[in-house]
């Protein structure tokens, strides 16, 4: 078996603007949905009062410290960094006719710094945030007008950065809207399932229009979607459990079906009929959906199980996505089950389903890293986690799966999305920041920093099976 990854395989890490940048009101930035959820994506929306602070307001101050951080990424050997653009830096309220030049200029500097270090930017247009003005004044993605605002934003960044960015993603973990409607589609609490799916439809149309715009404005670019890879297994081999698992996986696969095939699959049309969901879909919508993505990107952290026994589900329900825990797997400190082989399985499933290139743009282990007396962090548990997952990526490539690259989640410690925690650390780089906001924000290399550096330099040859 070939022990190295292919030439041209992209190695790096992944960040999100609202989890690293800080500078939440600098240079004309508007308020986003993330700013209105100070305790994470499942937190209650609270009105910001004068003088009130959230740990995300400063985050790790990437807005001011990005040259130092990019230099560290380059030292590890990164060839790619996934970042997102904060929509509110360019269109503070979301519906402006003209963008905020200060915001555009900052991303110019960021991309220039990456390219100076030969790191290719992979840019997500919308990563768990949208202008709060679009929620307050239009009702979020439930309003068809938001499609126009997003297309304006997308065309703006494609035009501005067409010579600097050749890899794009539309919406981060687009299927997460089913679990967190405010975060995903800007809908307030109490919205119906029909309202959520209509908002999702508008977002899928906007994604198609962004693909169309990217091809027109940057013909040599590639643009993909981004799924939360929520793979589930049957809890038992009972046929009812197997079929329930098929249906459960289709809840997130349907997003990929639309974005890769250009139309709603039959199983979703049946679901809508049986649940009295009557989507407004225009001929123009259908045309927009026909602009399918060039590649599929996804996050992978864990798998879970499914059973048709409703009583057992309530008894066993476990983690962030309410999956039934797998009795054969160990869990992280946060209850996320660790399943490296599941990544190989998922890669094969997506390849068989779509025959499009795949990009793993999030994978990592959150842990409470503690410096020793000398200030060093021996995160051998993270090394083990990443090694085992990368071995399975290599196996999938041997299976014939076309994998473009791997960007681990949070190459530098950041603020977690789900609960706005800093103690849940993912990085190869430690940031001196505590949950109460104290700390110097100084950066230091963990043991995993040097390990990842060697893995990249060897193109994966030093992975241990």
Automatic annotation (TrEMBL):
GO molecular function: beta-glucosidase activity
Keyword terms, alphabetized: Glycosidase, Hydrolase
Any single GO CC term annotated in Swiss-Prot or TrEMBL for this entry: cytosol
GO aspect biological process, one term: carbohydrate catabolic process
Active-site residues per Swiss-Prot or TrEMBL entry: 362 (nucleophile)
Keyword Oxidoreductase: no
Protein's UniProt keywords contain Hydrolase: yes
Record Pfam families: Glyco_hydro_1
InterPro entries given in the database record: GH, GH_1_N_CS, Glyco_hydro_1, Glyco_hydro_1_AS
Domain of life assignment: Bacteria
Family of this protein: Belongs to the glycosyl hydrolase 1 family.
Protein name from the UniProt record: Family 1 glycosylhydrolase
């Amino acid at each position: 078996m070939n022990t190295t990854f292919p030439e041209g395989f992209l190695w790096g890490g992944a960040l999100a603007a609202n989890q690293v940048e800080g500078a939440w009101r600098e240079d004309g930035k508007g308020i986003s949905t993330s700013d209105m959820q100070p305790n994470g994506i499942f937190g209650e929306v609270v009105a910001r009062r004068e003088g009130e602070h959230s740990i995300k307001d400063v985050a790790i101050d990437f807005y001011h410290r990005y040259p130092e951080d990019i230099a560290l990424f380059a030292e590890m050997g990164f060839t790619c960094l996934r970042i997102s653009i904060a929509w509110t830096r360019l269109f503070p309220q979301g519906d402006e006719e003209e963008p905020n030049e200060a915001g555009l200029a900052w991303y110019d500097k960021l991309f220039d710094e990456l390219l100076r270090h030969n790191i290719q930017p992979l840019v997500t247009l919308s990563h768990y945030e949208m202008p709060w003005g679009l929620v307050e004044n239009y009702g979020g993605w439930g309003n068809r007008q938001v499609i126009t605002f997003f297309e304006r934003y997308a065309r703006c960044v494609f035009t501005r950065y067409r010579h600097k960015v050749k890899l794009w993603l539309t919406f981060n973990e687009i299927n997460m809207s089913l679990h967190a409607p405010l975060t995903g589609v800007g809908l307030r609490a109490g919205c119906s399932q029909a309202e959520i799916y209509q908002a999702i439809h508008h977002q899928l149309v906007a994604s198609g229009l962004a693909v169309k715009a990217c091809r027109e404005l940057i013909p040599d670019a590639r643009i993909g979607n981004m799924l939360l890879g929520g793979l589930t297994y049957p809890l038992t081999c009972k046929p009812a459990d197997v079929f329930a698992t098929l249906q459960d996986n289709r809840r997130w696969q349907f997003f990929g079906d639309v974005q890769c095939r250009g139309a709603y699959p039959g199983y979703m049309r049946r679901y809508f009929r049986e649940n009295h969901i009557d989507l407004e879909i225009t001929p123009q919508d259908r045309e927009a959906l026909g602009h399918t993505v060039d590649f599929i990107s996804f996050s992978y952290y864990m798998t879970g199980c499914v059973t048709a026994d409703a009583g057992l589900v309530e008894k066993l329900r476990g983690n962030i996505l309410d999956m039934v825990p797998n009795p054969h797997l160990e869990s992280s400190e946060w209850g996320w089950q660790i399943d490296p082989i599941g990544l190989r399985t998922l890669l094969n499933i997506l390849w068989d389903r779509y025959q499009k290139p795949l990009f793993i743009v999030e994978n990592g282990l959150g842990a409470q890293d503690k410096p020793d007396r000398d200030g060093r962090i021996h995160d051998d548990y993270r090394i083990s986690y990443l090694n085992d997952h990368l071995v399975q990526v290599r196996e999938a490539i041997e299976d014939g799966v076309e994998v473009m690259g791997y960007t681990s989640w949070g190459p530098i410690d950041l603020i977690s999305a789900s609960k706005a925690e800093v103690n849940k650390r993912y990085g190869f780089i430690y940031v001196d920041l505590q949950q109460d906001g104290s700390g110097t924000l100084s950066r230091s290399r963990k043991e995993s920093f040097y390990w990842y550096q060697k893995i990249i330099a060897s193109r994966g040859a030093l992975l241990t099976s």
